[in-house]
Amino acid sequence: MSNRRPYVRSMDGWWKRDAYFVSYMAREVTSVFVAAYAVVLLFGLVRLGQGEAAFNGWLQYLKTPWMLVFHVIVLAVFCYHTWSWFKIMPKTMPIMFVGGKRVQPGTITGTGLAAAVVACLALLFIVGGVS
Amino acid sequence: MADTEKIIEIEVLRYRPEQDKEPVWQSYKVPFTDDMSVLQGVQYIKDYLDETVSFRWSCRMAICGSCGMMIDDKPKLSCKTFLRDYYPGKLRVEALKHLPIERDLIVDATDFITKLESIKPYIIPKEERTLAQGEYLQTPEQRDMYEQFSSCINCMLCYAACPQYGLNPKFTGPGILALMHRYNADSRDGGQAERNELGYADEGYWGCTAVGYCSEVCPKGVDPANAINQNKMNSAINYFTRFVTPGGADK
To answer: Is the Cβ pair A24, B73 closer than 8 Å?
Structure first.
């Protein structure tokens, strides 16, 4: 008869165990905010379909103090979201060589962040030009 | 010498299945010198303080992969971690997380070994060649595609770093999926179709949520997170192309 009795440790509260896990969970939670803001934009689209007055009402609602606070929070969260996902991006890419040298993780993250900044500025420019 | 008079406290998570219902911490005072590894500290305990303490070790130079343990809650090889870096504080050593404790610092590696065998971790030649036909040739560029993934020493630190494996031990896990990629990415290998059945399953690449800690703790720079996540694209393409390939959806 075997006297073996392997002990399995609990995983309760695992994400608080290490700072690395906390930052991982923070990255994952930012996705909830992205989904929440998509709902806000979707609501705007519905209001647009209901006519100009309805759409303007939605725009006015976005300017209320609580919605401004919400936007500031969302902006900060989105910045972390962008940084944290581009940080993990090199893990998702196949090994690449340019000019015989391996493309470094920092280059991939930096390129992603630069693309995000350029896209944001381009969008601001276009929206600014329209209005 | 003043050096020999330094004493560090090492707390060991003990588990003796015949007497302990659950693991308990036990403290030891270990004299040490600056060149002593944590493994040597634990060896000192066994040799001079308490011969009942159990642990695995072999090479003492970070290549056998036997002496992995949690050192102050971080998965590390105890032979390449030094006591001086914890002094004057104490340090805690514990069996690798997420794996069942067999006894003291020894984990039950059955699950790891079973999975390791299942992925066929050897080259399955793309084309059979006789000795007379000569060796299988490979360019340096082709070698670069898998070389880093071939450095795995099966130390299981990445399993102790992976919460997804801890939460669901059915997940194949970082080290073995990285080895799977190592063979799949080898230009001489033709076993991709056989291995991908495991890789593309729910317990395969998709069990990973890109925490990335496995790559941080790997003592050999294997980067399992990269090996796993670069395969998700292939898996997704495989999943969707079967709907447009004649007979593919039946698979």
So the answer is: no
Work out the pLDDT band at B184, boundaries 50, 70, 90.
very high
Measured between CB atoms, which of B22, B163, B230 is closest to A92?
B230
Chain B residues lying within 8 Å of A91, measured CB to CB: 210, 212, 215, 223, 225-226, 229-230
pTM given for the model: 0.91
Considering B59, B84, B107, which residue would you say is the last residue of a domain? B107
User: How far apart are alpha carbons B93 and B25 in whole angstroms?
Assistant: 9
Of B18, B187, B172, B47, which Cα lies nearest the Cα of A5?
Answer: B18
Helix axes A65-92, B224-244, angle to 10 degrees: 90
- Residue B183 near residue B149 (C-beta atoms within 8 A): no
Searching chain B, which residue's CA lies closest to the CA of residue A24?
B211
**What are the Cα distances from residue A88, in Å, to A108, A110, A111, B44, B70?**
10, 11, 13, 41, 25
Convert the pLDDT of each residue in A56-109 to its tens digit: 999 999 999 999 999 999 999 999 999 999 999 999 999 999 988 899 999 999
The rounded percent of chain B whose pLDDT value lies above 90 is 89
Answer whether B66's CB lies under 8 Å from B77's CB: no
Contact check, Cβ <8 Å, B230/A93: yes
- CATH topology for A15-130 is 3 helical TM bundles of succinate and fumarate reductases (1.20.1300)
Q: Are B120 and B183 in contact (CB under 8 A)?
A: yes
Q: Locate tokens 């997940």: which residue?
A: B171
